[in-house]
Amino acid sequence: MGIGIRIENLRKVYDTPPPSAARGAGFSFVAQRTAGPKEKKKKFEVVAVDGISLEIRAGEVFGLLGPNGAGKSTTIGVLTTRTRPTGGRAFIGDHDAWRDQVKAKRLIGVVPQRPNLDFALTAREILLFHGAYFGQNTRERDRRSSELLEQFHLTERADDMVRNFSGGMMQRISIARAMMHDPEVLFLDEPSAGLDPQTRLMLWEIVRGYNKLGKTIVLTTHYMDEADALCDRLAIIDHGRIISQGTPKELKASIPGGYLLRLRFDHVPEALPGELKNLPGVTEVRANGETGLDVYAGRGGPLIAPIVNAAQALAAELHDVHIAEPSLETLFLHHTGRSLRD
Amino acid sequence: MNWKTFYALLSRDGHVARRNLLPMLLQNLLQPLLLTFVFGRILTTSGMMHAEYKNMLLPGVMAISMVLSGVQAVAMPLITEFQFTREIEDRLLAPIDIHWVAMEKIAAGMVQALVAGLVVIPAAWLTMGSGVQLAFRPAEFGVICVLVAMFSAAGGLLLGCSIGQTQIGLMFSLVIAPMMMFGCAYYSWQSLAAFPVLQYAVLVNPLVYASEGLRGTLTSAPHIRIPIVVGALALINMALLVVGLRKFQQKAVS
After folding, report:
1. Do the chains contact at B8 and A101, CB–CB below 8 Å?
2. Is B19 on the interface with A (CB under 8 A)?
3. Please, are residues A342 and A69 in contact by the beta-carbon 8 Å criterion?
4. I need a labelling partner for A64 at 20 to 30 A (CA). Which of A335, B72, B93, B117 fits?
5. Model pLDDT, residue B103
6. CB A327 within 8 A of CB A224
């Protein structure tokens, strides 16, 4: 029996700069200085999560996709009891993540954005003590830790201090630690940041395998391919709000036309967007800066020639074209006007 | 309250402490023992100090050792663990209320302070040579030891949650050093009578009660009355605990 997650109108406003924590990294520090004319003291305020409601079903792989500072890590922080919500509620199964912390903590395993390993211990000890915190007996701990070390190819280095480990190894032991007590819900915050492609694939396999056991998986990422490959459902987040959610397929189908052509001209005559909109297959034309136009269309390459002709007819010169196939990246662009990597 | 988890946290700290046993003992004991040797042996044997000074010094050195080890045992790891790497996170995610994670730190710090204190007595005795006369009152001594250990660990919690890595040096020169100098460790409180203002000013220093309490239960030297010492230490401990736990919560949860 899996465990689902429910978030109701979650808000988080930081009134002090968050600690330089692993989980805290990635805020948009657009501090809103809410100083009125009479207020002398300037108040620090960052709205990290601005009214998010979500339902994550038991046994699914759910992805939170968004650029740095979108509020993904803060949402994970609240769900993992480590961040106090300013408003709204978050439930792990039936347990309120803030009011019923201890019970919620029993159900979850957390892989942080940056490895926060206990540097005073060896790899094996990290797993053994973690198991002990969760009340596992000695035999269970020994068995499970050996299994995980084997699975994550860490057996050879099991008795070395983790402070000497490479980044990829630290990440692997972090994931092994999160799975040590066999949690019902596994949170992975940017799990593949900084991993080499091989380790990344291994990570995907592990996540899929763990999901097959009926466990719920929540991950944040700003890699499109990762969201596409792993997630059953996705929520796209920006500026602390959910922009769109659904299966990767549904989300991609929601982009008008599917293809995105990013065009750059020497200048954009007033009539040009209208002309382009009338080309066959074009569903939407949007301005992108002073000299750019984004064209959403049902086809890519074949449109170039008509676009060049239309531009020349208006005495404009096409400088640059970039064609993006239907992807979550174009979806994100469509909703926010920004690239995910901005 | 989840005792299994609490015990596991405690055994983790015990495991790490055992691994660092030798450097830890050197760090906490070398300085007090050198002090004992210079003040308790060289100065007394050469006749610059009375032999009775040894009685005055032993409890003071013990108090300093306990306080230093307790504060360091709690504050230093906390400062590191709350840094950028957030090493403490695994324990904050353990299925136990996070106040108990802090309480566990205090318990571990108390054990280390008690061990350090109990090691100092025979060690200092040997360093000073003959001439120390103990008037040992076990029950009261035990109570004082526990209160002093708790003061050191709770103080360590507060310091560890209040300062960052870059301020450790400042902590020693601004907090620890004056506390040691004005902590009635090297002289009795009574002997400050010649400096009336100072005599009452030092009463804000918790180390005064630690030194005087140990002096009163370990030797026959003059000292502040034990009930007063117990009351003062209990109050200080409560205050440090309340403020320390609140600071810990602020550090732990964003």
Report:
1. no
2. yes
3. no
4. B93
5. 95
6. yes
